[in-house]
Structure to design on (90 residues):
């Protein structure tokens, strides 16, 4: 048995949503059903929810990708076999 779920969105958003759904070949109802199933399967929102880049400068970020580049050096023999595991080598 199916039940109806409703939500309110503005007309422009609805039209854009319908246009995208049509382009990918699914009905808006099926797209929303897929989203709901994704939430259930993922046990949360099935995609990253992030602050838009336009709002990001207002926040203090703890670190940036690559910010520690050059701060650490890897030993030349880092990938060499460890003596402790010698008995497991072929």
């Amino acid at each position: 048995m199916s039940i109806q779920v409703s939500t309110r969105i503005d007309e422009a958003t609805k039209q854009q949503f319908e246009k995208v759904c049509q382009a990918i070949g699914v009905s808006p109802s099926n797209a929303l059903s897929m989203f709901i199933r994704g939430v259930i399967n993922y046990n949360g929102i099935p995609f990253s929810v992030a602050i838009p880049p336009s709002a990001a400068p207002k926040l203090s970020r703890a670190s940036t990708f690559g910010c520690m580049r050059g701060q650490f050096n890897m030993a030349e023999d880092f990938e060499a076999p460890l003596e402790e595991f010698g008995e497991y080598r072929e």
In short: Residues 28-42 form the longest helix (15 residues). The chain has a mean pLDDT of 83. The radius of gyration is 25 Å. The chain has one domain: 11-80.
